[in-house]
Hints:
By secondary structure, the chain is an alpha+beta fold.
Amino acid sequence: MYEIKIYRSIRNGFKILGGSLFFVILGIDIIMTDPQNQWEGWLSVGFFGLLIPIALFQILDRKPAIVLTIDGITLMGRNNSHLEWQYINGVEIKNTTKWSKLICLYAKEGHSPNMIKSAFWKLIHYWDKNMGYGDLNISVNNLKTDPDRLLNLLITLINAKVADRKALIEDLAMEGAF
């Protein structure tokens, strides 16, 4: 069975790593040169030092972020969310901030991938719905693909018949287009 795997970009990991190393070095410099304000240096080293493992995880993590199959779309992460194509009502791209975009997938009534989550995730889903976001939201900032291209692919896969969807996924998987 063919599937299209979309991976995370390591660029954001390097940005976090560079910024955190800068402030860690700055904090060490404050600790060494200014004995009266050592607490500021330790605060900087402690906080920004904790970002280094997060950045390394983003750089070294090679699992796909999104997997598109003939059956549906799966968001890989802490909570693997899967939504089948026939249960998707619509899809759109939303700008959450000036630099941040989300692709929002809207599920048919009773088929939300968030139905079986814990109370905490149900609360988050409730807030998402009240803010106008979808049942399954894909952050496209740290993906290796163009958001508009991914949106067009999702619209095509949602509207395609099963045979056409299978051929499209096979073709794109063979090309390695994403």
